Request: fold
Amino acid sequence: MRLAPALLLCFVPMAGLAAPQPARANVLQADRSDVSPPLTLLAAAPAEEDEEEVEHGPGRVPHQVQAAPPEHDPVLQASVAPLLLPQTSTNFDGIGLGFLGVNTRAFEVHGVPPDPQGDVGPSHYLQIVNASFAVFAKNGRTLFGPIATRTLFAGFGGACEERGDGDGIVLYDPLADRWLIAQLANTGESGRPYHVCVAVSRSGDPTGQWARYDYSYADFHDYPKLGVWPDGYYATYNTFTSASGGDFRGIAYCAFDRRKMLAAEPAAQQCILIHDPVSGTTPADLDGSLPPPAGEPNTAVGFIGGSLALYRFHADWSDPLNSFVEPAMLQAAPFAEACFETPSGACIPQAGAGAPALDSLADRMMFRAAYRNLGSRQSLVVNHSVAVRSVVGVRWYEIRDPGGMPVLYQQGTYAPDDAYRWMGSTAIDRAGNIGLGFSISSSDLRPAIGYTGHAASDPPGEMGQGEAIAASSAGSQASSLRWGDYSSMSVDPADECTFWYTNQYIPADGVYNWRTRIFSFQLPGCVTSPDYAVWPASGGSAIGRGRAAAIALDSAALLPSAGSKILSLSVGELPAGVTARIDPASVAPGQPATLTLTAAADAQTGRGQGYLIRATAGGATATAAGALDVVDADFAMKPDRIQASVAEGGSTRVRIDTQQLFGTPETITFSASTLPPGLSASFNPPQIVAGESTDLVISTAAGLALANATVAVHADAASVSHSALIRLRALDAPPAEVTWPADHLAVRAQTSSGCGCSAGGANWDIMALLGLLATIRRRR
Reply:
């Protein structure tokens, strides 16, 4: 190697992720894209399989697990509520053995399991199994199919037209009235043999045209799960070096450019690899017409040990270098994964002599992670399978404010008797009710499809609406432990109340004879609930005695039918000595209003008081609670920035200014919470008088990998407290490549981001140069 007297290194910080090292977004363009003719004009592709086969099981996800099951599950629901669920309003067979649909030839089963999944739109239900799909009217009449999913890619060319390797997902996009379909295509080509084929309908009619995309990868992207979000279509994959097994590479969390897909333009995706010891994850999928708060990231959910692991993807489509994933942890009630003592994960018994145990797939979060914005709150509901007593049950959760400061609002383990329940899926309706569907089996029961529900009025963590069976098997599955792989619960956008669920059953002993069922049901109180919402824009407010405070009120239509209504606004349950005025007193959903609260000079002070906002229209009333402190003094707090960067072994400083709003300035004490391991926070000074400033210093330990995080800053005074959020970006040691020129005159370096720099003739000591190179190698 020839040494040069001048050297320049150009460092580009990498967006943080999680241990063992942060990662930047990898931008992938589609290999090809186009717009199809109408689906009804495409040539039907032949069935995929030439012979019957059992799918390779989903690759197991290496992750941190609980060492042993808890002696007692503190959130166990050990009995079925005495209430009876309403019978299904629609219940019909989906794709399965012998199903005709609109075809003249009955559907043949070639693969196990069926991977049944579906979603509902205003006029259609789309179901996808393995590598086939069908379009149904809501009364169960088949409108199209079943047909090979790769029919969508007829005339497209490449792997997506030639192959269909299943793991299909279909979703309805309620914000755009479009449909999304994705499946795998695995080839033997060199370089990038693994493909994800994505199609987005050009209208709400799934039999019309579709925008089509083919994305290829070097690693196998297994068990894809997708979600609709305003700024992208998000996906998670368990990645392996090959489809036949190979080494686990991590969980790929990806975002497709939804805006361009809706416009049928060439669209990129951004992917960030998660290396944490987390279970299989699934991304948030939006239900309802009310989008998340502006800028809220998509959240994927899994579990690590006994905690829920949330990953928030902040996608920047204008500059992907600014995209990052931020983890957050929520402690859950203790649990052990279903079938934890069985290496194969199969311990679900079936009735019948010699019937094999079925796989629980307990190493991953089940599909979907259903998100709904109810105006006054945002909820994300998820589930997975756990061991309880000597059986298996469904552990379900409702997480509120998943994109901000998440709270585990409620959780429960549904295992009410000696049967095994698994393969769950859950969703939440516009009234806040939660529907849960699952498979149920035991040594005395052949696998069936069951469902239950949690009404918003039920005690937290309890499925209080009874249980029903929608479809029973007349046989047990033979010679394969694979069952389902997933199921799917969704909510009808026509009323935001009707749950639709699909899962598999089996009509007789066998293996290549599965069938699927599609059915719908409602939970009490939703249909009569308001089809609009109203809420205070800020979560909490403070008001001084003898003073007034203005609070913005927001409202929204939850259904198109609410758009023409006029909401009469009023306030109730005010603290003593506080009066209220709303201007204007009547609004249409979506229009703002201002609530002005006035406290008398002798109003009783106190924190955590509240009030109730009411909006009445057409005999229905929507309510939302607001928090209120009545105080003698108040201050405002403002960080000089809401995002800061920090590197391993370094520190960052955020200045926090305060301003006295009224009353006598009080002493403010600062603290910080939600700090991940390896980070510490201090304030200089730790106490100030309102009107002064302090510096928050966040320091990191040397030698410990960092993760992005949201740090909560708390400012506490005698009268009132305030909080602010600081998003912390973890910086990785940057990669550097040194090129040694022959002329000794200058050195130039080029990074993968396109940053080009020159030395400018600087002189370097050779020994110092060698030491720097050694340091770079160590940090890489």
